C-alpha cells in the first residue's frame, strides 16, 4: 500500500510539472511539416510531386466490350496524348480516383459483399506507370462491385453502362 501511495504521489508531481507546458498557446508552436504527425497537427501525406508524374503512361487493353471499343490504347498524361480515344478525359478519370496512400487501380477487396448482377463479358487490362508507381490491373464486370470499379474509371475504360443510367 505504501508503494502505491508513493507511486501516485510521484505521478501527481510529474503531471504538475508538465502542466505549464500544456498551457502554451497554439500560436507559439511552429506548424508541423507534412508527414510528421506531431501534437501540432495530424499526420498529413506529402503531396504528389510533378516529377513523380512525368512518367504517367498507361496501356489499356479492352476485350469483349464490342466492336469499335475492343483494342489496345496508349495513354500519356501531362500533357494528355496517345492513341486512347479521349486522352484528356481518361487522364482526368484516373486523377479523380487518385488518393495519397491508396492504389487507384486496387482490386475489389476480398470478402466484399457485392450485388449479384452481371455487366457483360468485357474485360480490360491496364499496365504502365501512374504517379511514379507501376500499374498492372485487370477489370471485368461480373458483379456489382466490379462493375462499380470499372465505371469509376470511365472514360479510361469504355462506358458500358445502360442508357439512361448515371
TrEMBL record:
Annotated InterPro entries: Subtilisin_inhibitor, Subtilisin_inhibitor-like_sf
Chain spans, region Disordered: 26-54
Keyword Signal annotated: yes
Gene3D superfamilies recorded: Subtilisin inhibitor-like (3.30.350.10)
Signal peptide stretch: 1-29
Keywords: Disulfide bond, Protease inhibitor, Secreted, Serine protease inhibitor, Signal
Primary localization class, coarse: secreted
Pfam (any one): SSI
Subcellular location field: Secreted
Subtilisin inhibitor domain location: 70-136
Entry's family note: Belongs to the protease inhibitor I16 (SSI) family.
Name of the protein this chain belongs to: SSI family serine proteinase inhibitor
Amino acid at each position: 500500500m505504501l508503494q502505491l501511495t508513493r507511486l501516485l504521489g510521484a505521478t501527481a508531481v510529474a503531471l504538475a510539472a508538465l502542466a505549464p507546458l500544456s498551457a502554451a498557446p497554439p500560436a507559439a508552436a511552429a506548424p508541423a511539416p507534412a508527414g510528421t504527425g506531431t501534437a501540432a497537427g495530424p499526420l498529413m501525406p506529402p503531396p504528389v510531386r510533378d516529377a513523380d508524374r512525368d512518367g504517367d503512361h498507361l496501356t489499356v487493353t479492352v476485350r469483349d466490350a464490342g466492336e469499335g471499343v475492343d483494342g489496345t490504347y496508349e495513354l500519356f498524361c501531362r500533357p494528355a496524348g496517345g492513341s486512347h480515344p479521349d486522352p484528356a478525359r481518361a487522364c482526368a478519370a484516373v486523377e479523380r480516383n487518385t488518393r495519397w496512400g491508396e492504389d487507384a487501380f486496387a482490386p475489389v477487396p476480398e470478402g466484399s459483399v457485392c450485388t449479384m448482377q452481371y455487366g457483360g463479358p468485357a474485360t480490360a487490362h491496364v499496365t504502365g506507370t501512374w504517379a511514379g508507381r507501376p500499374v498492372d490491373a485487370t477489370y471485368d464486370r461480373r458483379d456489382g462491385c466490379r462493375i462499380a470499379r470499372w465505371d469509376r474509371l470511365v472514360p479510361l475504360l469504355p462506358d458500358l453502362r445502360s442508357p439512361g443510367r448515371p
